[in-house]
Design a protein that fits this description.
Number of strands: 14
Radius of gyration: 22 Å
Number of helices: 21
Distance between the termini: 10 Å
Shape: globular
CATH architecture of the largest domain: 3-Layer(aba) Sandwich
Oligomer: single chain
CATH superfamily of the largest domain: Periplasmic binding protein-like II
Largest sheet: 6 strands, mixed
Strand content: 5-15%
């Protein structure tokens, strides 16, 4: 059975890679860093860290922190290997596990959590080790204070499984809205819309202007925004409390909340208020439309808060961030997180494991977590980092930067707002995204098309559970 589960792991990661692929290539000659540290008595122990960021800001931050850690702990050498996307990390992780030379730390995004928990090697051993178990109750590792108990509630709630952090939270975001307040004011809209109805009313005014933009609002066609709306409406994506009280064995793509959100989305497009770029998961296209003032509002990941705010300044308009608009007919239960965590390889020798754990704590200490937030817009991952930012006046200087944290803090703690743990999640997300494109482009009936998607998604989940559900 273990061999079958391993082969299934390879197949699952291949599916994930295809679903997440953004094209392009990357250097896959990576430092393994998961070894025994037997490179000589004076040689530092190498700790490989693979991340899915290759841009200058995020990669540069990570490499700088590794350099600082290495200087503080010369017995270790953290080597950061960048990849152009999560899909490439997945592909190379499978090959590395197969060859016996994986890195010590691997960066996976939140939708892969169930797959990572289920992952076993060819001998049937778990590929990853619980960070909580590895820390083993220690308050510090190699002098680096452990930050797990300080992680903000939203990330803690998502990534805690059976009472354990199986991975170390890092880049965490939520879906918020960015508005061109100059354009809205010119249209006679003095208040940032907070609900679906208010968005429609604002768009009616925007599109009535003599110099109206191409459209009023946009966001990427990505299932993550559907999941966010389900959380807002207090509805589940999957059974067994979104896979929290037991393994998810069924997904609900025809729920009232799902149909209501996609119907509203289609109605906005039919009225000419929402513009579809014509590409699935088009983060760049939607962001560019907002920066070029082709739309007045953008629902997007808070991870780009800094970049979008600065882009508005550079292009001569004011950007104001706010909560993601919600369905006023249902009220508001709360939004959920996005982003990724850092997974610790199982089977490391004690010295290598402690070095990797110490780096993970150093990497997320208050000062580093606060700086990471400033550079990107990902929320500060610990409460101490939040306090540090507040004390130094950062949020007064940059109020947009606090919106995502406030939105996540405003959520009730329920299975709906914790988000789903689902096998084959990325493939299921792809099913939803394709269905939405069909609805928007081909003017299909929402309920009928989502019923078809529901069958397809549940087939994928059933096949996965047959292999991993026990």
């Amino acid at each position: 059975m273990s061999k079958l589960r391993y082969l299934a792991l390879v197949a699952v990661f291949a599916i994930v890679a295809a679903a997440c692929s953004s094209g392009g290539t990357t250097d896959t000659t990576a430092a393994s860093g998961g070894g025994s540290g037997d490179g000589g008595s004076d040689a530092p122990i190498e700790i490989g860290m693979w991340i899915a960021f290759s841009d200058e800001a995020r990669l540069g931050f990570t490499k700088d922190r590794a350099k600082e850690f290495n200087e503080l702990h010369p017995e270790y050498n953290v080597v950061v290997q960048e990849f152009d996307s999560y899909n490439t990390v997945f592909e190379q992780a499978v090959l590395a596990v197969d060859s016996g030379e994986p890195p010590a730390i691997i960066h996976f995004f939140e939708a892969a959590t169930r797959q990572a928990l289920d992952a076993v090697d060819a001998s049937g051993n778990p590929v990853f080790k619980s960070v909580t178990d590895a820390v083993a109750g220690r308050g510090a590792i190699l002098g680096e204070p452990v930050v797990l108990d300080d992680v903000v509630d939203a990330a803690r709630n998502y990534y805690t499984v059976e009472g354990s952090f199986y991975s170390q939270p890092w880049n965490t975001s939520s879906a918020i809205m960015f508005s061109n307040t100059d354009m809205l004011k010119a249209a006679g809209v003095d208040k940032i819309p907070a609900t679906w109805g208010e968005v429609e009313a604002a768009c009616e005014k925007v599109m009535a202007m003599d110099n109206a933009p191409k459209a009023c609002i946009t966001w990427p066609n990505h299932s993550w925004f559907v999941e966010q709306s389900l959380g807002q409406q207090g509805e589940l994506l999957a059974n067994n409390d979104n896979g929290r009280s037991g393994r998810a064995t069924e997904v609900f793509l025809t729920s009232d909340g799902m149909i209501d959100y996609i119907s509203w989305w289609k109605d906005m497009a039919d009225k000419g208020y929402y513009i579809y770029t014509g590409a699935q998961r088009d983060w760049d296209g939607t962001s560019n439309a907002f920066q070029a003032q082709e739309v007045a509002m953008l629902v997007y990941s808070s991870s780009d808060t800094t970049a979008l705010t600065e882009a508005g300044d550079a292009n001569g308009f004011t950007v104001e961030a706010s909560f993601m608009p919600y369905n006023e007919a249902k009220g508001y239960e709360g939004n959920l997180i996005g982003g990724a965590t850092l997974w610790l390889l199982n089977g490391l020798d004690e010295k290598t494991q402690d070095g990797a754990l110490a780096f993970l704590q150093f990497f997320n200490n208050p000062e580093n977590a606060a700086e990471w937030h400033k550079i990107t817009g990902y929320i500060p991952i610990t409460k101490s980092a939040e306090k540090l930012l507040e004390d130094e006046g950062w949020y007064e200087q940059s109020p947009n930067s606090k919106v995502a944290s406030d939105q996540l803090a405003a959520a009730k703690d329920t299975p709906a707002t914790r988000g789903a743990l689902v096998g084959n999640f990325v493939s299921i997300r792809d099913v939803i995204t394709i269905a939405i494109e069909d609805i928007l482009v081909n003017d299909l009936d929402v309920a009928e098309r989502m019923a078809q998607a529901n069958e397809e998604a549940n087939k994928l989940l059933t096949e996965y559970e047959q292999l991993f559900g026990g």
